[in-house]
Amino acid sequence: MITSGFVAIWLAWLMAGGSPGPATMGIAGTAMNEGRRAGLVFALGICAGSAAWGIAAALGLSAIMLANVWVFEVIRYVGVAYLGWLALKALRRAMTADEVALGKPATGSLPTIFAKGAAIHLTNPKAILSWGSIYAIVAPNDASLSMLLGYFAMLYAGSLMIFIGYAFLFSSERMVRTYRRARRWFDFAFAGFFGVASYKILTVRLG
């Protein structure tokens, strides 16, 4: 199940999760303005929404596989295109001097902050596309439901690490300053990694 190809894609998954977006910037903004506790709760809400889509995608793809294997392959190439789009987006950010703004902080009671975090993923159609694509990329065409759920556990562990890590890191003003100074270099790294990952998926059959 765990191959060198999967490790490379898992790292790309981490990079995608850590790249600037509504979830990561929302966690950063909340942690910086409302404190570490609020940032962690917001991150856990996002993780809950991500888990819902991840499990739903695994169940749905398992059912689709039984009837139309070709759909799985189509989704795999959608995932390749998505990685390519992330590479171009990161490169465009790296080529501009504009600063990436941190997200608007989530406020309210802790249950409210958690719900706001969950809503980010539950209302974002890109979330289920991302999960469906990553399954189709890393899993063989005859993947069983148990195999897909196994991949979910490993990928979700990476998501937890990224989102919770953001809550810890961005509750430190020093980390925020460091990120802003090195932002363009991070984006160049994101662009290169996504581009290589997309190329590898196109040229190497994972299974």
Can you walk me through this structure?
Its main location: membrane. This is LysE family transporter. Keywords: Cell membrane, Membrane, Transmembrane, Transmembrane helix. By secondary structure, this protein is mainly α. Helices cover 82% and strands 0% of the residues. It has 8 helices and no strands. Helix 2 runs antiparallel to helix 3, helix 3 runs antiparallel to helix 4 and helix 4 packs across helix 8. The protein starts with a helix and ends with a helix. The model has no long low-confidence stretch (mean pLDDT 79).
Topology readout:
Layout: H1 4-18, H2 22-34, H3 36-67, H4 69-94, H5 110-122, H6 125-138, H7 145-169, H8 173-203
